[in-house]
Amino acid sequence: MPVKVDREERPDIDSVYIEVCTALTGGAGWPLTIIMSPDQQPFFAATYMPKENLGNQMGLKSLLLSIADMWQTEQGKLLKTAGEVTQFLLRDESIKGIRPNEEFLHKAVEQLYASYDSEYGGFGSAPKFPTPHNLIFLLRYSKLTGDKKAREITEHALRQMYRGGIFDHIGGGFCRYSTDREWLAPHFEKTLYDNALLALCYTEAYQEGHLPLYKEIAERTLDYCLRELKSPEGAYYSSQDADSDGVEGKYYLFTPDEVKSVMGEETGR
Fold first, then answer.
1. Contacts of 185 (CB under 8 A, 6+ apart)
2. CA dist., res. 129 & res. 197, Å (int)
3. CATH architecture assignment, domain 11-96
4. To the nearest 5 percent, what fractions of the chain are helix, strand and coil?
5. Residue 187 to residue 165: CA distance in whole angstroms
6. What is the pLDDT of residues 61-111, one digit of tens each?
7. Where in the chain are all domains bearing CATH 1.50.10.10?
8. What does 20-52 look like in DSSP terms, one character per residue?
9. Residue 139 and residue 121: Cα distance in Å, rounded?
């Protein structure tokens, strides 16, 4: 099962697997490829790998076939490596983590409050990511505790993201991040995981307050995923490239007159 982790959104996860790669190969970098057992113990790590074999470098497709064969014939060897890597990581007590409790939740919320942009919504400054996992957490925290502030800043962020350029007002769906604090100028890549989580976030916001706008945004986001990211075979692509003809955002940039010629004078405004 492939899992894509955005290291810019989750540097905590990235730091763990960078250490895995360093332990197994003596170096690390990005893009980072980790293969692990079903119980999440890593046994293989590498940086960039081509899709197909390239000279003396094994391609990812060949590697996966080789590991699938080893899993059938030498599973014990792979699990031994995985166990040794896990024990190496756990030598540091800080990596073991703690069991979440109510105090843990309150502390997490206070940290989010401290980094919240009260003017434009979202967390931190440019580049600004939508971080739907944080917003979903705040929605559920508000419902659990009755904390109105958590709900208010979440709704503020949801409205501001929709109003900005990070949301595709013509084709639907959200871009990966905004290059500015105001959500105006996006990096035009669209990822499946962000759009799936944002659709969930707007759906949960709609379920609580029944604001039609949230329902519309969720539906348009899912419509985009079904239209643009679903493959003919029924699976889903992980992302849609920011570049067209080697130019970032070329596909998305229209003059006002071009928009009006397609959508009409009133809607195009």
1. 165, 178, 179
2. 13
3. 3-Layer(aba) Sandwich (3.40)
4. 55, 10, 35
5. 10
6. 999 999 999 999 999 999 999 999 988 888 765 555 667 788 989 999 999
7. 102-268
8. HHHHHHS---SS-EEEE-TTS-EEEEES---SS
9. 15
